[in-house]
């Protein structure tokens, strides 16, 4: 059996690396007393998978964690309460779904919001850490740039295979991954039919 837990990662927890975040979530699941399935071999580890990690410093409102369990959960609201109680500040469990959906094969887009104190230049090439260059406006879909109280807000979606670190853009001081999408629809709405 598999459950999918939606978390929000915010506050100081947004500065955890992907490995630190993974370890924190797994420790929290262990403290809840979940009977997780483990891999086989010399170093068994819990069968837990995460959607794409976010760059260090990014707020993540669409952090989904799939957990394989030995047996079903009797009271999901009690588990959610336990998770909320035992999770460190800044890692907030939101919903629990019972679903065998493989999110890593299903999710194909993400929605982001960026805040910048300067109008971002999105039409000139930007180099990734790998050395590859890209032009942001060419891969950003549903792009909106709004000026509110001297802060530029950039809202866009991007295909999963074209993800990039938004902090590579000049003067971005806050980045938020708002939603995980399946063909433009919020994945939580798709999982809603399987919510427990």
Secondary structure topology:
Elements: E1 2-9, H1 18-31, E2 48-50, E3 59-68, H2 76-86, E4 91-98, H3 103-106, E5 109-116, E6 126-127, E7 133-134, H4 136-139, E8 140-148, E9 151-159, E10 172-182, E11 185-186, H5 187-191
In a few lines, what is going on in this structure?
With 196 residues, this protein is α+β, with helices and mostly antiparallel strands.
The gyration radius over C-alpha positions equals 18 Å
Spatial separation of the terminal alpha carbons: 13 Å
CATH topology of the largest domain: Alpha-Beta Plaits
User: Helix count, per DSSP?
Assistant: 5
The structural class is alpha+beta
CATH class of the largest domain: Alpha Beta
């Amino acid at each position: 059996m598999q459950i999918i837990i939606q978390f929000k990662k915010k506050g100081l927890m947004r500065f955890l690396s992907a490995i630190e975040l993974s370890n924190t979530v797994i420790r929290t699941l262990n403290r809840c007393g979940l009977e997780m399935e483990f891999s086989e071999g010399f170093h068994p580890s819990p069968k837990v998978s995460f959607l794409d990690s976010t760059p260090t410093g990014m707020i993540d409102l669409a952090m989904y964690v799939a957990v394989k369990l030995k047996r079903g959960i009797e009271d999901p609201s009690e588990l959610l309460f336990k998770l909320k109680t035992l999770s460190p500040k800044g890692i907030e469990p939101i919903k629990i779904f019972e679903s065998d959906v493989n999110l890593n094969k299903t999710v194909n887009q993400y929605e982001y919001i960026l805040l910048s104190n300067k109008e971002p230049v999105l039409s000139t090439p930007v180099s990734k850490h790998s050395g590859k260059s890209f032009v942001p406006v060419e891969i950003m879909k549903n792009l909106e740039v709004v000026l509110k109280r001297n802060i530029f807000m950039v809202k866009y979606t991007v295909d999963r295979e074209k993800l990039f670190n938004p902090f590579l853009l000049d003067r971005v001081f806050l980045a938020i991954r708002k939603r995980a999408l399946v063909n433009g629809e919020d994945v939580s709405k798709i999982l809603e039919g399987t919510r427990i």
